[in-house]
Automatic annotation (TrEMBL):
Histone deacetylase complex subunit SAP30 zinc-finger domain location: 9-78
GO-annotated biological processes: regulation of DNA-templated transcription
Name this protein carries in UniProt: Histone deacetylase complex subunit SAP30L
GO molecular function: DNA binding; transcription coregulator activity; zinc ion binding
């Protein structure tokens, strides 16, 4: 039988800035691989050695996911070299907020090559890499948006009116 998750009343097993987290533990667990990846990002959380389990709270789970997905991958795991690094000012889209069906529809729409049976984390990784790789001309996008708002247009209206854009 597999582990059922944290017991009632168990707290997150992590320490942040030297203090033990007081939030309730969820069913996500902390591992050495996660510890290694976040230590490279200079996040100041660590496993509390007195904890008798490895379950973490939803706050730390989301923090770890956002830190791990911040890096832009271009064929290798290192951030240096010729792979472009995302600007700090660029807002990060939290794809974990989307439903699995939405991620699957995105994958199908853009015909992203994947194997069947992916879980949400794998879909977020694949969709996120693709989403971040799409070039956006901000000036054209904003002009198009403002035109649409001012003229009360939606996508179906714009297909009929081919003089725009």
């Amino acid at each position: 039988m597999s582990k059922a998750g944290p017991g009632p009343g168990q707290l997150c097993c992590l320490r942040e800035d030297g203090e033990r987290c007081g939030r309730a533990a969820g069913n996500a667990s902390f591992s050495k691989r996660i510890q290694k990846s976040i230590s490279q990002k200079k996040v100041k959380i660590e496993l509390d050695k007195s904890a008798r389990h490895l379950y973490i709270c939803d706050y730390h789970k989301n923090l770890i996911q956002s830190v791990r997905n911040r890096r832009k991958r271009k064929g290798s795991d290192d951030d240096g070299g010729d792979s472009p690094v995302q600007d700090i000012d660029t807002p990060e889209v939290d794809l974990y907020q989307l439903q699995v069906n939405t991620l699957r529809r995105y994958k199908r729409h853009f015909k992203l090559p994947t194997r069947p049976g992916l879980n949400k984390a794998q879909l977020v990784e694949i969709v996120g890499c693709h989403f971040r790789s799409i070039p956006v001309n901000e000036k054209d996008t904003l002009t198009y948006f403002i035109y649409s708002v001012k003229n009360d247009k939606n996508k179906s209206d714009l297909k009929v009116d081919s003089s725009v854009h």
